[in-house]
Amino acid sequence: MNLLTTVIVFAAVIYMQGFHIEIPIKSNRFCGQRGSYPVKLFYTSNMPIMLQSALTSNVFIASQILATCFPSNILVKILGIWEPLEDSPQLRAVAGLTYYMSLPHTIKEAFLDPIHTFLYITFIISACALFPKTWIEVSGINH
User: Fold this and answer.
1) What is the dihedral of CA 38, 39, 41, 47, to 10 degrees?
2) DSSP notation for 61-97
3) How far, in Å, CA of 12 to CA of 8, rounded?
4) Rounded Cα distance, 37 and 39, in Å
5) At what angle do helices 47-69 and 114-139 cross, to 10 degrees?
6) Please, which contacts does 79-84 make with residues 24 or more away whose CB atoms are closer than 8 Å?
């Protein structure tokens, strides 16, 4: 099922990247000079996702280390409370900021905790919108 979903999303993105609008351009300097400028309607890039994933991973690692070293500290508990998954040594955030930064593990969990799902989606979209904006401003591309 996951492989099929990945293939469908991959095909849809490739298909939608082909959509563009030609904007007509007329030159004021050269009389009669005309052209067009293509604008993609669906622009995708992997950089925002990679930056968001790196941020999330670093916060998770720091939170797990702090939770192991200082389990009773209130600030550490606000950052995240971690418990092992069933039949696995892997840890899972069950409370705190890291809980809301983590993906719900099942569809059922997503429906049972809609606030978690909404905050997770909001975090992902916000981070993926903020990183490119910051990158453009820092790199000087906008000048």
Assistant:
1) 120
2) HHHHHHHHH-TT-HHHHHH-EEEEPTTSS-EEEEESH
3) 6
4) 6
5) 120
6) none
Type of residue numbered 102: S
pLDDT tens-digit map of 27-55: 777 776 777 777 766 665 677 778 888 88
Q: pTM score, two decimals?
A: 0.64
How many other CB atoms are there within 10 angstroms of residue 20's CB atom? 13
Identify the H or E element spanning 25. Answer: strand 20-26
Q: Looking at this protein, which amino acid is placed at residue 140?
A: G
Distance CA 69, CA 87 (A): 23
Q: How far apart are CA 110 and CA 91, in angstroms?
A: 19
Return the C-alpha torsion angle 53, 90, 95, 77, nearest 10: -90
Q: Compute the average pLDDT of residues 53-82.
A: 91
